[in-house]
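Can't paste images in this forum, so I'm doing it all in text. The chain is below; anyone willing to post the predicted C-alpha cells underneath?
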Amino acid sequence: MKNRTKVLAYTMCDNLEVDDFIKKATTANPKDFLGLIRHVIALLKKEQKQTSTIARGRLLHLKPSGKANIVGDLHGDLRSLAHILDDSGFLKKTRTRGKAYLIFLGDYGDRGSVSPEVYLAILKLKESCPDKVILMRGNHEGPEDMLPCPHELPIQLKQKYGEEAGGKIMKELRKLFNHLYTAVIIEERAVLIHGGAPSKARSTRDLAYAHRRHPKESHLEEMLWSDPQEKLEGTQPSYRGAGQLFGPSVTRKILKMLNVKILIRGHEFSEEGFKINHSGRVLTLFSTNQPPYRNKYAAYLQLNLSMKINNAQQLTKYIRQFE
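Text version of the structure:
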C-alpha cells in the first residue's frame, strides 16, 4: 500500500502543467478549497508523525542530496509564483528520478491582491507533489495572538467566496498554519527559517517544538519575526513590534549549534530580491516585486543540496532574479 501511495503522488505531480495549474487555483470553489486545506493538514500530520529523523515536530531534516528551489515571500503574488514554476522547470523535474524540492519560506498572502489564489496554488502543489513540496510558516501564518498588520487575507476570502464560506476557509487555514514547518535543516549546509535565529535556543528541540512553547518562550516569535542587523551585539527590540533585531553573534551561535554554515530566510524586503548579512552567514530571499512593493527585482534560489557551502556569497550565481 505504501508503494502504491508513492506512485499515485508521483503521477499527480507528473500530470501538472503551469498554465493549467494556475487556472485551477483561480477557479476553485469554496468546497474544493476547504477540502484541499483539510487534505494538506492530513498530509502534514502524516509527515510529522514519522518515527525517523526526517521530521521532528515542526523541524524538517533534509539530506544533502538532490536539488531545491527555495522561494521567499510571495504576499499574494500569483504572477511571480507562476514565473518561478515556469523558470525553474520544477514540475518537469518531478518527472525524473532525482530528488527535486520546492521549498517555500512562508508569507504566502496579505498585501497582494490575489492572496486566496496563492494559498490555493501552494496547497495544490503540496497535495500533488507531497514528498517534493515543503511549506514553511511565515509571520503572516503566525498564531492568532501575533497577527500581522495589514492582514487582508480574511477580507479577500470573504470578498471572493462570501461572508460565511470565506470565514470557514480562514478558520481552516488557521488550523493549517500550526502544522507548517518552522525550520528546515539541510544537513551540514544550511538552516531555513522565515524570520530569524531564535536567540535563546539551546537545542534543535527548541526549533522543532517552538509552536508548543509559544507564548511562554520566545523561539517561535523570533523565528517568524526577527531580522538580522549589522554592528549589533546580541539582540534588541525590533521596529516591527515583534521579534528581535539580532546581531552576528546570534547567527554564529545558531549555526554552530545546528552544525550548518548559513541561515537562509525570507521576511525582509530587498530591492535586488536578495541580500546578504553577517559576513555571508545570512541570505535573505524576497520573491515578489508586485504592488505594494516596488523593488526592482524579485528572486529565488536554485540550490544543489550536495554542494559544499561556506558562505552566502558563494550562492549568488545560483540566485534567479526576475522583474
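The chain has twelve helices and 15 strands. Confidence is low (pLDDT under 50) at residues 1-11.
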